[in-house]
């Protein structure tokens, strides 16, 4: 094994909702550098809250595309200042929050191709986007377009059978359709449409990067079995989409060398390769080296639950995506919009903004919360589609408030009962040896993970590095270099760190939560009905 200054490095980025993060691994898969840029506090000129702008209609949610570009400038400058030797980086890959769309303006490809190394990206790309505010995954403003798409393909289930999901408002195809219908001038001024992931890869390549199969599965446009754009979906969405979306490629593809801009400005080697970027949840699956039987729970801005599956069986709830690491496999995904930001709101209201006091409230209240159950949907939830705050006492009577400690437990229990209920509807069942792998910002909180373990009745494991999407991106960068020769992802990453056991279920929990789950399911039905009346 080589040592010293020439040892190869692999760089993994994650353009997530609230921040841009990076992990650099050496060939032993040990992290040698980690860094990040928080959008709200480090780029205050964009005035985001939690990385986004919520518009006056309460449904439209966007992020400034130039904020993501500027964050990359800032991150690379930080890494340079920290002394990272970019010439050792053999491959770069990355991930992005899923579903978000970037609309490149006519002429942008020439600008990308001729970037001047003396200037930052942000200044040079200012005029390269036809839409400055990119729709992101929190958006729920394309309801009409969803209905139209389902009608055009023969119903919600038919759409799910083709694309892995019924129509969802945040899915990119429906956002593209909305742009075409409401701002046709901007649509016509667009020469390419990227996902956040392929947009970020394009910056590194100096030309437009292909969308990968796995993140492409979150658009309501890709046929997940043939792994090609679905003609019927493209036609129902907007004109000229074959040209605007470009090709779709396996997630393990090497897209090309890093552009000369990065060679001259930061000292990357000309031979450094860019491996297709993908969605943050697929990248997390790679970072956690998920095995069949495991369930991953990501507690980031969104909460997500995902599983490795061999056979796609799309349904009206949840999503099936092509696996990011194995062309023959798939992953099932559930997404919950009211995750960390709702936990932060309750922390601020009930425990004076302190995670320590929030944790103490969990420790001081019993599993089952003496029968109190809560649903906390600050924003229209994705799974299930309901909104509002609903609290029930042990007699199933709706009440207007809980005391602070009960409120904290009701929130966390309600969130995890929902994660389990919907994961079971997707086919997940707890068997002996089942592991829950936790990741994302809130996985740093052991008391939250204890509730997760109690409710799933399974041991919870986590990685030291809570950002598994970055880690997975660095793994994928390394794997991309050898994937063509048939080496499997798992062979390449077998030396990687094993997730560590964080907590096991408390003895009494199984009985408490098996009962509670039944009540929760009935109450959820009531909440759903009241949300739709
Ligand atoms: N100790 C903690 N306990 C609970 N939640 C936490 C803790 N530390 C951070 N978080 C949550 O992690 C969230 C960020 O998670 P992260 O996975 O980095 O987000 P994203 O990748 O979506 O930008 C924050 O919004 C915060 O609420
Ligand atoms: O919409 C989804 C998945 O379908 C979200 O999970 C986004 O991918 C955002 O991820 P985070 O920033 O919360 O990690």
Automatic annotation (TrEMBL):
Record-listed E.C. numbers: 2.7.1.17
EC class name: transferase
Stretches assigned to the Carbohydrate kinase FGGY C-terminal domain: 296-479
Keyword Transferase included in the entry's annotation: yes
TM region(s), chain numbering: none
UniProt keywords, alphabetically: ATP-binding, Carbohydrate metabolism, Kinase, Nucleotide-binding, Transferase, Xylose metabolism
Pfam families noted in UniProt: FGGY_C (PF02782), FGGY_N (PF00370)
Domain Carbohydrate kinase FGGY N-terminal residues, every copy: 136-287
MF GO annotations: ATP binding; D-xylulokinase activity
Entries under InterPro entries matching the protein: ATPase_NBD (IPR043129), Carb_kinase_FGGY (IPR000577), D-XK_euk (IPR042024), FGGY_C (IPR018485), FGGY_N (IPR018484)
Example of a GO cellular component annotation carried by this entry: cytosol
Gene Ontology biological process terms from the UniProt entry: D-xylose metabolic process; xylulose metabolic process
Taxonomy, superkingdom: Eukaryota
Reactions the enzyme catalyzes: D-xylulose + ATP = D-xylulose 5-phosphate + ADP + H(+)
Function noted in UniProt: Phosphorylates D-xylulose to produce D-xylulose 5-phosphate, a molecule that may play an important role in the regulation of glucose metabolism and lipogenesis.
UniProt similarity note: Belongs to the FGGY kinase family.
Protein name per its UniProtKB record: Xylulose kinase
Designated gene of the protein: xylb
């Amino acid at each position: 094994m080589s040592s010293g200054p020439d040892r190869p490095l692999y760089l993994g980025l994650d353009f997530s909702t609230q921040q841009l993060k990076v992990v650099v691994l050496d060939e032993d898969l040990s992290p040698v550098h980690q860094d990040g840029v928080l959008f709200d506090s480090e780029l205050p000129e964009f005035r985001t809250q939690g990385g986004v702008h919520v518009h006056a209609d309460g449904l439209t949610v966007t992020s400034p595309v130039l904020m993501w570009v500027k964050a990359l400038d800032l991150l690379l400058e930080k890494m340079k200042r920290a002394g990272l030797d970019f010439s050792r980086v053999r491959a770069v890959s990355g991930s992005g929050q899923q579903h978000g769309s970037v609309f490149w303006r006519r002429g942008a490809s020439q600008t990308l191709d001729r970037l001047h190394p003396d200037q930052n990206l942000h200044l040079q790309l200012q005029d390269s986007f036809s839409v400055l505010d990119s729709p992101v995954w929190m958006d729920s403003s394309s309801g009409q377009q969803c209905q139209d798409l389902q009608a055009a393909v023969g119903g919600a289930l038919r759409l799910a059978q083709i694309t892995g999901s019924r129509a969802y408002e945040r899915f990119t195809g429906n956002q593209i359709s909305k742009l075409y219908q409401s701002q046709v001038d901007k649509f016509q001024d667009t020469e390419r449409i990227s996902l956040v992931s392929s947009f970020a890869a394009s910056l590194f390549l100096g030309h437009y990067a292909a969308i990968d199969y796995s993140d492409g599965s979150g658009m309501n446009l890709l046929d997940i079995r043939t792994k090609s754009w679905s003609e019927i979906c493209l036609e129902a969405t907007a004109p000229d989409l074959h040209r605007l979306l470009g090709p779709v490629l396996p997630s393990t593809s090497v897209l090309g060398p890093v552009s000369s801009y990065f060679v001259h400005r930061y000292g990357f080697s000309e031979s450094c390769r860019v491996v297709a970027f993908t969605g943050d949840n697929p990248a997390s699956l790679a970072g956690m080296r998920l095995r069949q039987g495991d369930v991953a729970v990501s507690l980031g801005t969104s909460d997500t639950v995902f599983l490795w599956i061999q056979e796609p069986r799309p349904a009206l709830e949840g999503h099936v995506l092509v696996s990011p690491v194995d062309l023959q496999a798939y992953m099932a995904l559930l997404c919950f919009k009211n995750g960390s930001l709702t936990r932060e709101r309750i922390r601020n209201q009930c425990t004076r903004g302190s995670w320590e006091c929030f944790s103490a409230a969990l420790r001081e209240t019993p599993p089952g919360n003496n029968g109190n159950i809560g649903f906390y949907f600050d924003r229209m939830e994705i799974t299930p589609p309901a909104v509002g705050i609903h609290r029930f006492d042990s007699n199933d009577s709706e009440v207007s408030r809980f005391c602070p400690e009960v409120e904290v437990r009701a929130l966390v229990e309600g969130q995890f009962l929902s994660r389990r209920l919907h994961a079971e509807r997707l086919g997940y069942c707890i068997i002996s040896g089942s592991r829950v792998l936790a990741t994302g910002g809130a996985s740093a909180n052991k008391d939250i993970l204890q509730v997760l373990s109690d409710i799933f009745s399974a041991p919870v494991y986590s990685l030291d590095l809570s950002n598994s999407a970055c880690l997975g991106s660095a793994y994928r960068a390394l794997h991309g270099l050898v994937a063509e020769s048939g080496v499997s992802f798992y062979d390449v990453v077998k030396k990687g760190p094993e997730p560590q056991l964080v907590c096991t279920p408390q003895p009494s929990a199984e009985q408490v939560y098996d009962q509670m789950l039944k009540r929760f399911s009935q109450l959820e039905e009531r909440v759903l009905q009241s949300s739709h009346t």
